[in-house]
């Protein structure tokens, strides 16, 4: 898998994309996603849903073999060729041949080692996945963006 920020000049509004599968197919989908983000600025979820709809229904796109992970400061999503846009319940996502190993390791670390940062969890989970999966190696890129904290319920603020 690989990742690249879609806008590296400023940290505001940055979207990070990781993928697995055919690189050419992933970049074709990334171009389409950038178009959707231009069409729906600041609406990553809607942009991903629109991409997934096109991916599933377009005769050319349907043949593309890739999976995408997409994240901004508000949400992290997986987009599949089946037309699914998935948001994990715990914020943990992985893609590729070692993805299941990485997710399992990251979840175990998240629940059992509370002082680890998200970046430390990701790096350790990738190391564990690369030790378990022959198709996963220790050559990866980590992109870090700060997530916005979800605001507390309005009733809690009033108290």
UniProtKB/TrEMBL annotation:
The keyword Lipoprotein does not apply. One of its GO terms (biological process) is proteolysis involved in protein catabolic process. InterPro entries: ATP-dep_Prtase_HsIV_su, Ntn_hydrolases_N, Proteasome_sua/b, Proteasome_suB-type. PROSITE patterns: PROTEASOME_BETA_2 (PS51476). GO terms for cellular component: HslUV protease complex; proteasome core complex. GO terms for molecular function: threonine-type endopeptidase activity. It comes from the Eukaryota. It holds the Pfam family Proteasome. Keywords: Hydrolase, Protease, Threonine protease. Belongs to the peptidase T1B family. HslV subfamily. PANTHER family: ATP-DEPENDENT PROTEASE SUBUNIT HSLV (PTHR32194:SF7), METALLOPROTEASE TLDD (PTHR32194). This is Proteasome endopeptidase complex.
